[in-house]
Amino acid sequence: MQAMVNIAVRAARAASDIIIRNMDRLDRLKIVTKQNNDFVSNVDHMAEEIIIATIKEAYPEHGIIAEESGTQAEDSEYQWIIDPLDGTTNYLHGFPQFAVSIALQVKGRLEVGVIYDPIAQELFTASRGNGAQLNDKKIRVTSHKGLKNALLGTGFPYYDQSYLDTYLETMKALMQKTAGLRRPGSAALDLAWLAAGRIDGFWEFNLKAWDIAAGALIVREAGGIVSDFENQDGYLKSGDIIAAAPKVYPEMMKIIQEKVGASNYLRK
């Protein structure tokens, strides 16, 4: 899989060049509102196009699942899952928290994950069974025990607020048992930071596969646990994700299941 990791890295760096070049012209970007509080710019489109072109040059028969252009070649066993700019709202405001996220799924199993932060120039990579790296140095999740004094990452509901009350219940319960919560605004980077030991756990509702595919693999290869709210592997489909260091995960799961179970969220 190393050759495919290399292609993903090449694609991520090419997209990041476009993203950085356009940072000094944010006021001239064409911005479209896809839905409430969900935006896309021509930078997202240009970055996605160069990622797809880079992948297709190396692997023309592989499939693509991309945020802006949808799905191509659904019948391929190889599916690249692409978010060209995770954290578009941050980017459009000049808030330096965004990333390129690229994953490869083979026969339904995640095999490659790459996340690149062009501001910090941090490259997070993983391939299944080979561990996770930050700028070619091995990374591991924390050995923190339980929620006491833990630092958690999360993401607020922003376009679909139908589950806002349920989310706030989980947030309130976890906030009272931890050292604090952080919401930087890029799920991909939240997961990458979890893998690097900067936070101890992360949860969010209703994400898309391209937001979390690469990060989920990187966390797992760094020794973390990743699941949906039912303690299963359905997070790419449901978008509901819990990821944490092994000794933090059980308490997080217990609280989130209690709060989600008290609502009709999973049954809606």
Shape: globular
Give start-end ranges of low-pLDDT stretches. 35-39
Number of helices: 8
- What is the overall pLDDT average? 92
Q: Kindly report the CATH topology of the largest domain.
A: Fructose-1,6-Bisphosphatase, Chain A, domain 1
Query: Care to count the β-strands?
Result: 15
Q: Report strand %.
A: 25-35%
Give the helix/strand layout.
Layout: H1 2-21, E1 31-35, E2 38-41, H2 42-58, E3 63-66, E4 70-72, E5 78-86, H3 88-92, E6 99-106, E7 109-117, E8 122-127, E9 132-134, E10 137-139, E11 151-154, H4 164-175, E12 180-182, H5 187-195, E13 201-204, H6 209-221, E14 225-227, H7 235-238, E15 241-244, H8 249-261
Parallel strand pairs: 3-5, 11-12, 11-13
Antiparallel strand pairs: 1-2, 3-4, 5-6, 6-7, 7-8, 8-9, 9-10, 13-15, 14-15
Helix pairs in contact: 1-2, 4-8, 5-6
Task: Describe the overall structure.
It contains 8 helices and 15 strands. The protein has helices at 2-21, 42-58, 88-92, 164-175, 187-195, 209-221, 235-238, 249-261; strands at residues 31-35, 38-41, 63-66, 70-72, 78-86, 99-106, 109-117, 122-127, 132-134, 137-139, 151-154, 180-182, 201-204, 225-227, 241-244. Strand 1 (31-35) and strand 2 (38-41) form a beta hairpin. The protein has an 8-stranded mixed sheet with strand order 4-3-5-6-7-8-9-10, sandwiched between helices. A 5-stranded mixed sheet has the order 12-11-13-15-14, sandwiched between helices. The chain folds into 2 domains: 2-139, Fructose-1,6-Bisphosphatase, Chain A, domain 1 (2-Layer Sandwich), CATH 3.30.540; 151-267, D-Maltodextrin-Binding Protein, domain 2 (3-Layer(aba) Sandwich), CATH 3.40.190.80. The protein is globular and about 50 Å long. It is of the alpha+beta class and 268 residues long. Helix 1 packs antiparallel against helix 2 (42-58) and helix 5 runs parallel beside helix 6 (209-221).
